[in-house]
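Long-time lurker, finally posting.

We've been working with Haloacid dehalogenase type II (Streptomyces longisporus) and I want a structural starting point before designing mutants. I don't trust myself to interpret raw outputs, so I'm hoping someone here can both generate the structure tokens and explain anything notable. Sequence follows.
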Amino acid sequence: MPADQHPVLVFDVNETLSDLTPLRGRFEDVGAPAHLLPTWFAGVLRDGFALTAAGAYADFTSVAQEGVRTLLAGLEGWTGDGEAAARHILDGFAQLSVHPDVPDSVRKLSDAGYRLTALTNGSVALAERLLDTAGVLDRFEALSDVGGPRCWKPAPAAYHYAVERAGVRPGQALLVAVHPWDIDGARRAGLGGAWLRRGASVYPRTMTPPSVSAQDLKELAEVLVGDQ
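Top reply, 14 upvotes:
Generated this for you. Predicted structure of Haloacid dehalogenase type II:
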């Protein structure tokens, strides 16, 4: 898939580029089991999606903090400070790193002529810190979050906002994401979709299939660029 077919790559950030695993320790710090991380994060996405579907909007931090407070309040035997616990867990996002395959793969895609952008349901500030720490911020020409269109992905307006900022049509952009719902949303909005499996083996048949799939970003770069 040469760069002239999809000259712009739009990267999702949370879990696609960043590794959320260290947040498990943040849950343990506040006296909650580490295994609550995926339950909490799925709930954050659910609530953000629900607000968007209802025509409303709240930013990621607000939704995520409420998610922590609600989850811990229902945890049997937990008697801590919900507000403080939420702050501690959310502060962990500023300490996250990218997956090991990200830096070299980003450079390879950039060197091959792809224009790199990012679109997150989180915040531009955290995405910027993440990419700067990884040494690849300079390879991205634009970082966008859903505060611009005031709707969360997978709403079509979110993807259209990102491609409009890049000055291209939806069909000239390829979303790179680990979440099938994100790929489906991008495809329905007219973009291509590159699914990073990152250990997953099944893509839901109810969702629009990806244009291309790969185990991780290293493999995707090999597919898009070749072995050079």
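Before you design anything, note these points.
The chain has two domains: 8-19+96-225, 23-95.
The chain is about 45% helix and 15% strand.
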